[in-house]
Amino acid sequence: QVQLVESGGGSVQAGGTLRLSCAASGHTYCMGWFRQAPGKEREGVAWIYTGDGSAYYADSSVKGRFTVSRDNAKSTMYLQMNSLKPEDTAMYYCAADRVRCSPPRYWGQGTQVTVAA
If pLDDT is split at 50, 70 and 90, which confidence band does 68 have? Predict the structure, then answer.
C-alpha cells in the first residue's frame, strides 16, 4: 500500500504560480498528476518515472508551463505550475504505482487549484 498526500494548492490570479507536492509513503515506480475540473472528466497532466526521472506531459496545454519533478530522498513529487490560466482551475490529484504508469493503483485525496481571471 502506498499512501499519497498532496499539498500546495490554492487560489491565484491568472499568470500566477503554484507548486504542488505529493509525498509518498513507500516505493513507487511511476507517479503522476491528474486533474478534474467541475463538470469534466478527470484528465492526466504529467507523469514521471521515479527511477530515472523521465517526465511526460499530457498535451501542449500544459507543456512549457508545468514541470513535473521528484526528490527520491524525500519520496516526493512536485508539479511546478507557471503562467496559470483560469482553465487550469481543477482539483489536482497525485497518483502512483509500483510497477507501471497507467492506470495507477494509488491515489491521493486531491488539492484544489483555483485561477481567477
Answer: very high
The helix/strand/coil state of 88 is helix
Judged on CB neighbours under 10 Å (0-12, 13-18, 19+), 29 is middle
Q: How long a stretch of residues is the chain?
A: 117
State the cell numbers at 86.
Answer: 483560469
- d(CA 46, CA 34) in angstroms, rounded, equals 7
Nearest to 51 by CA among 7, 92, 101: 101
Q: What is the pLDDT of residue 60?
A: 80
Per-residue pLDDT tens over the stretch 50-60 = 999 999 999 88
Q: What angle do CA 40, 94, 55 make, to 5 degrees?
A: 100
Q: Among residues 69, 74, 41, which one has the least CA distance to residue 56?
A: 69
Q: How far is CA 10 from CA 7, 17, 114, in A?
A: 9, 10, 6
